[in-house]
């Protein structure tokens, strides 16, 4: 088969959530699609990110919730059953096998080629397969790059020999280290610190700068999460940078972590949760005039901007727009529809919120941080609204005062913030922090994406007594402040 050539309408590189959805959506548009994958179908999300990490966190969150329910507290006083948690994690990561996804791909009539794919000039992809064979693929309409990201390590002395943990080591861990150092203060750092502290590690978080945890979100979110992590026993240090790491006496020894204040600490493992780099160093970008290792900048139809003739698309993490599975899948749905329409010579509906416009990427990206307490947000933060020059009313509410929250748990602590565009009277941003708030997020996303006027929300009646009555309290607070009664 060496040197075999095949032609498809669409060639997709990478079968993570973005690639799988792009292949399916283009196939649904009547095109032939092939997907190239060199590890497991499902990508980082299924095996080393969303799925296993949420499986590690679910018992942590459920136990914390149960401990706040009178009558239940004593039943959940003990430690977590670590082998059972790991066994559940293994199941949720489908034992690092991808047969189910292969079956699904077959059921939607998308071809699969296993191997490492790389661009080789316009519309050309060469796949190096594990058996040494190669196949050349020609894309009649589009190539979609969906190769995702890898951990971005800082350039530190000693790192190479210190066997640092990435998200893969943490989410697929077979043991709970006694002492775990976590570098970074973003979502991966927070979630993994939450999980491992509860599983029995003594966690030390090393966060450079003083902007707090989760610093792309409303500041109160990071503050509440940091307080809770400290209450759980984690050592959360701000303004602390790592200057070097070393495994002192060989493979089994602990790691020494040197800090910029001249201090050092010793840990059994060190997790680097210091952001992501695009997985583009080895995909032949140089053959089409792009720079290997760069993020792929796209327009609002996900076409790579610096490539002539509009045949190259980049979807998911690799375009650096919003590094989350659901957003990559959204992008794939839009890009797939765009590729389908262009292939048929149809006009695009690229008006705001049109079928071929990536509007949600900038207006309504939802995110849940599965920490304890949970953080759920969509749309703008106060800081982002200010930066955009948008005049907003900022409405805060203590979720603990909602009847449903008192039912949910004793001493419920949570906070909601809703940003209302003062001119258009639409909701442009929502942040909830507190137990059970992850399931409130879709309501907030519908409100933001539908750009419904706040007056109409009085008719969206939340059931009593649920936490969702926070929406009513927000409306009342806004009414009393602005004197507007619908
Ligand atoms: C610890 C952790 C937890 C997370 N939790 C969540 C969460 O709860 N919710 C959420 O929404 N997001 C979460 N994310 C983010 C989420 O994992 C990513 O946004 C998502 O995986 C991106 O999907 P993707 O398809 O763009 O890329 P990926 O999932 O990275 O998939 C890319 C695929 O391309 C393949 N590939 C790369 N290069 C080639 C090549 N040359 N040839 C063939 N195949 C190739 C890779 O093997 C991989 O399968 C988490 C991330 C981390 C690190
Ligand atoms: N539940 C979820 O939705 C979820 C969960 C995990 C990850 N994700 C997504 O995956 C992506 C990656 O997450 P992440 O936490 O790795 O990245 P991030 O960009 O969210 O956070 C990186 C953190 O590392 C710090 N950092 C960067 N370089 C550093 C350095 N040299 N030294 C010390 N600290 C450094 C940053 O200041 C920041 O605190 C994010 O976009 C996130 O949204 C989503």
TrEMBL record:
The lineage of its organism: Bacteria, Bacillati, Actinomycetota, Actinomycetes, Kitasatosporales. Binds 1 FAD per subunit. Residues 365-471 form the Pyridine nucleotide-disulphide oxidoreductase dimerisation domain. GO terms for biological process: 2-oxoglutarate metabolic process. Disulfide bonds join 45-50. It comes from the Bacteria. GO terms for molecular function: dihydrolipoyl dehydrogenase (NADH) activity; flavin adenine dinucleotide binding. Pfam families: Pyr_redox_2, Pyr_redox_dim. NAD(+) binds at residues 184-191, 275. The keyword NAD applies. Its cofactor is FAD. FAD binds at residues 54, 117, 317. The keyword NAD applies. Keywords: FAD, Flavoprotein, NAD, Nucleotide-binding. Residues 8-327 form the FAD/NAD(P)-binding domain. This is Oxidoreductase. Belongs to the class-I pyridine nucleotide-disulfide oxidoreductase family. InterPro entries: Class-I_Pyr_Nuc-Dis_Oxidored, FAD/NAD-bd_sf, FAD/NAD-binding_dom, FAD/NAD-linked_Rdtase_dimer_sf, Pyr_nuc-diS_OxRdtase, Pyr_nucl-diS_OxRdtase_dimer.
């Amino acid at each position: 088969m060496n040197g075999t050539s095949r032609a498809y309408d669409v060639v997709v590189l990478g079968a993570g959530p973005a690639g799988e959805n792009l292949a399916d959506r283009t196939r649904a548009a009547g095109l032939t699609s092939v997907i190239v994958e060199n590890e497991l179908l499902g990508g980082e999300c299924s095996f080393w990110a969303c799925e296993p990490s949420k499986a590690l966190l679910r018992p942590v969150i459920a136990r914390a919730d149960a401990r706040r329910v009178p009558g239940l507290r004593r039943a959940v006083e003990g430690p977590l059953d670590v082998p059972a948690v790991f066994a559940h994690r293994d199941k949720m990561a489908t034992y690092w096998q991808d047969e189910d996804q292969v079956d699904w791909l077959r059921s939607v009539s998308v071809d699969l080629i296993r191997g490492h794919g790389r661009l080789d000039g316009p519309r050309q992809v060469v796949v190096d397969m594990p058996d040494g064979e190669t196949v050349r693929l020609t894309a009649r309409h589009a190539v979609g790059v969906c190769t995702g990201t890898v951990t971005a390590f800082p350039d530190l002395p000693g790192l190479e020999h210190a066997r640092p943990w990435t998200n893969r080591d943490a989410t697929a861990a077979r043991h709970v280290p006694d002492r775990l150092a976590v570098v970074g203060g973003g979502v991966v750092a927070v979630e993994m610190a939450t999980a491992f502290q509860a599983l029995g590690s003594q966690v030390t978080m090393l966060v450079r700068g003083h902007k707090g945890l989760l610093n792309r979100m409303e500041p109160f979110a990071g503050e509440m999460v940091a307080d809770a992590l400290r209450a759980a026993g984690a050592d959360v240090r701000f303004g602390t940078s790592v200057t070097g790491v070393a495994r002192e006496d060989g493979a089994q020894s602990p790691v020494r972590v040197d800090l910029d204040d001249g201090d050092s600490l010793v840990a059994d493992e060190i997790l680097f949760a210091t952001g992501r780099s695009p997985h583009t160093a080895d995909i032949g970008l140089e053959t089409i005039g792009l720079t290997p290792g760069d993020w792929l900048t796209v327009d609002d139809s996900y076409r790579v901007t610096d490539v002539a003739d509009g045949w190259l698309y980049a979807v998911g993490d690799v375009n650096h727009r919003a590094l989350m599975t659901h957003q990559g899948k959204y992008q794939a749905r839009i890009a797939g529809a765009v590729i389908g329409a262009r292939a048929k010579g149809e006009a695009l509906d690229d008006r705001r919120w049109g079928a071929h416009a990536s509007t949600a990427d900038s207006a309504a990206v939802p995110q849940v941080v599965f920490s304890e307490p949970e953080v759920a947000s969509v749309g703008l933060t106060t800081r982002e609204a200010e930066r955009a020059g948008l005049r907003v009313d900022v409405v805060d509410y203590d979720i603990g005062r909602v009847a449903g929250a008192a039912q949910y748990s004793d001493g419920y602590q949570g906070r909601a913030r809703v940003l209302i565009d003062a001119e258009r009277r639409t909701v442009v941003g929502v942040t909830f922090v507190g137990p059970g708030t992850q399931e409130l997020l879709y309501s907030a996303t519908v409100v933001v994406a539908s750009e419904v006027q706040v007056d109409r929300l009085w008719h969206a009646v939340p059931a009593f007594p649920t936490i969702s009555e926070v929406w009513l309290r927000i409306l009342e607070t806004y009414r009393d402040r602005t004197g507007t009664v619908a």
